[in-house]
Amino acid sequence: MQMKLTNRNKRLTHSLAATLATVCMVATANATEEATSDNQIDHPIFRPVTLGLEAGTTGLGGSLAWRFMDHLGVRAGGDYFSYSGADITIADIHYSSKLRLLSEPLTLDIYPWKKSSFHISAGIMFNQNQLTGDTGDTATIIIDGTPFPVEQVGTLHMKAEQQLVNPYLSIGGNFFYFDRAHHWAMGGELGVVYTGDPSVSVTRSGPPAPLIDLGLAKVEQDVKDYAEKFMWWPVAKITVNYSF
């Protein structure tokens, strides 16, 4: 019985090995055939017009690119994202905040290699990014180190906006194509935007109180210091592109 099981195991092992070898040969043959077929397809070195859907650090959106020469192109796009309800603390004051990302980049794309989608983008970004926040239900609000009853202060409302026009620099290209004709592709972009000196305002809803109003200047400066941490805004995007 043990001999029969051993022989059976050997036959099973040989069968599995033969099956695995066959699968490998078929896979290799298919890969070779696909590569050969891809080389035989008559598609251009690049397709001049590309529509893209994108998601990343500037939000969700899309773009339209036109590669009008071997090494030059232009691109325009737009991204949007909104998030509410996040609690942030700036200099001992707690805000229930809302973040809005809204931007439209316009770039000149430089393609160092004629046969590659890799490009260097330089241009501007029209920026409507905005952070707003309100103080919630709390017994006291600390202004310039001094606690005040919320009845005297009212609700603090802060708003921080980045500059409207920003310089934009990035690199990007396609990672791989979904089809042999090079219409559909997965791509990405990596870069940075300089958003400049932010515009900040802080107001309150409470009754007149000179001491509190004087302290609002310090609160406003604290919010500005916080917003200045994002003067260099990172650009990181994943894109799905269709070119024609």
Major sheet: arrangement of strands? 1-2-3-4-5-10-11-13
Helix content range of the residues, please? 25-40%
Catalogue the unreliable spans. Answer: 1-40
Distance between the termini: 68 Å
User: What share of the residues does DSSP label as strand, in percent?
Assistant: over 45%
Strand count, sense and closure of the main sheet?
A: 8 strands, antiparallel, barrel
Radius of gyration: 29 Å
Mind explaining what this structure looks like?
There is one protein chain. With 244 residues, the protein is an alpha+beta fold. The relative contact order is 0.15. The strands form 2 sheets. Strands 1-2-3-4-5-10-11-13 form an 8-stranded antiparallel beta barrel. It has 3 helices and 13 strands, in the order H-E-E-E-E-E-E-E-E-H-E-E-E-E-H-E. A hairpin with a 2-residue loop joins strand 1 (49-56) and strand 2 (59-66).
